[in-house]
Amino acid sequence: MAYYFSEPSHTFSEYLLVPGYSSSKCIPANVDLKTPIVKYRKGVEECPISINIPMVSAIMQAVSNDTMAIALAREGGMSFIYGSQSIESEAAMVARVKSYKAGFVVSDSNIKPDQTLGDVLALKEATGHSTMAVTADGTPNGKLLGIVTGRDYRVSRMEPSLRVEEFMTPFEKLITAPKDTSLKEANNIIWDHKLNALPIIDENQNLVYMVFRKDYDSHKENTLELLDAHKRYMVGAGINTRDYAQRVPALIEAGADVLCIDSSEGFSEWQKLTIDWIRENYGDTVKVGMGNVVDKEGFLYLAKCGADFVKVGIGGGSICITREQKGIGRGQATALIDVVQARDEYFEQTGIYIPICSDGGLVYDYHMTLALAMGADFLMLGRYFSRFDESPTNRVVVGGSYMKEYWGEGSARARNWQRYDMGGDKKLSFEEGVDSYVPYAGALKDNVGMTLAKVRSTMCNCGAMSIPELQQKAKITLVSATSLVEGGAHDVVLRDPSRNTAQ
Ligand SMILES: NC(=O)C1=CN([C@@H]2O[C@H](COP(=O)(O)OP(=O)(O)OC[C@H]3O[C@@H](n4cnc5c(N)ncnc54)[C@H](O)[C@@H]3O)[C@@H](O)[C@H]2O)C=CC1
Ligand SMILES: O=c1[nH]c(=O)c2[nH+]cn([C@@H]3O[C@H](COP(=O)(O)O)[C@@H](O)[C@H]3O)c2[nH]1
Ligand SMILES: [K+]
């Protein structure tokens, strides 16, 4: 006979936190959000990898590329670069995060000397940047032959067909710096010579980076930045249960700090085969998260496999239709509570603490506080990050509003991937995700700042100044369907019903 769970499965919106005593020291500025992301002997040793804010970005094409990873690491979180791309391009994204030097920009506006003023104007329109590197092959790292800025041409007096080499500032007249220049030295050169941009070149005159005067202010240190021992940004990467023998070495070589096996359903032999291969070849030096699971049994299986963290969540994501398509899944809050209980028991028995990542279905900022209070150590978000400037997708106008594109990894749009090649048939037989728009929300930094202000504030209401303290002290209540109404604006006529402030 089938097994029946005694409780219905619930979502975050069905719960609330009940405040606890807060001392006068318990203010948002004193709240520490640092959290472990890989297993360790809690109470005996430091966790080898922690993040400074409990947020990671989802392993998705529409969310986590190198631009997102840099922006999130700067705020103290971590991205998991999407695995549904070739090994080479995923490794290249990881490498770009690891080689990123704040203030040193890979030039995105480049032109060849035999192109024309017309091409310069078109490029300026496309990138919005008026400083262009003239390289022999027109690539960001080609041999530097000159620079074009708005001061080098006058559109009213010059023919659009005029060649770049005829009006650019040639290399001989440029001030450049070698590639081992520090940011401080670069800024001094910019200051001393009243430059707007300083090209950084290698020993063969190839362009490596540009340093811009206007970026100077944004280089000030961010105290929560997530850096490795060599002061490089930290980054995670998604892997699958098929090509790990090729993909894992490439990602490790590129510098990935943590890997995560990306699957809708992790209670499988495929996951064990994958981690066994990694342990055989790398021992414990390579950190691997596994998942997704939604109950105790699934957790214990992955714990025994040796997971460094376990990811929870099936079908709760905003773009997920797995529950509708396949009828598998579990309410995210119930799944999390069950797995956390198993994790705590496992810790009691073994002394090994396995961090739990709650993945998908976090809609309002308070859902994040709830998930942490329920025992999640960190949170994976897709929709949330897809709305920002830094996500890889297009910003479009829909019905007069700015939107960003966002699609599921199981959607037809993301399907160009071998994991759906079941027995030689390249076609995706059915979709498990949708292709959608989300309201554009601006810069990651501003939004994460606002979200975490709310999280810190709620933690203070619960008398908690750290995530472990929140998990210990939180008092959580289920709410009745009727009392849900009480939580929103009710029995008033809204002056502007189009303003929905809940977030
Ligand atoms: N969290 C969620 O609720 C969901 C997430 N997704 C996302 O969609 C993407 C695709 O997920 P899945 O379809 O679960 O991918 P998957 O690669 O885990 O599994 C796809 C199919 O391939 C089979 N398979 C896996 N490894 C194999 C191997 N080595 N040899 C032969 N067969 C193998 C599996 O049994 C399964 O039938 C992921 O990014 C996932 O995160 C999709 C649906 C739901
Ligand atoms: O059923 C699904 N079909 C899909 O196509 C799909 N793509 C991603 N995911 C999962 O959703 C998570 C992101 O969820 P949110 O947008 O709610 O943050 C992600 O982190 C994934 O766990 C999918 N689930
Ligand atoms: K859903």
Automatic annotation (TrEMBL):
NCBIfam families: PRK07107.1. It is an enzyme of class 1 (oxidoreductase). PROSITE patterns: CBS, IMP_DH_GMP_RED. Its cofactor is K(+). The keyword NAD applies. Transmembrane segments: none annotated. Residues 168-226 form the CBS domain. Pfam families: CBS, IMPDH. CDD domains: CBS_pair_IMPDH (cd04601), IMPDH (cd00381). The lineage of its organism: Bacteria, Bacillati, Bacillota, Clostridia, Eubacteriales. Belongs to the IMPDH/GMPR family. Its EC number is 1.1.1.205. This is IMP dehydrogenase. One of its GO terms (molecular function) is IMP dehydrogenase activity. It comes from Butyricicoccus intestinisimiae. SMART domains: CBS, IMPDH. Keywords: CBS domain, GMP biosynthesis, Metal-binding, NAD, Oxidoreductase, Potassium, Purine biosynthesis. The keyword Hydrolase does not apply. It catalyses: IMP + NAD(+) + H2O = XMP + NADH + H(+).
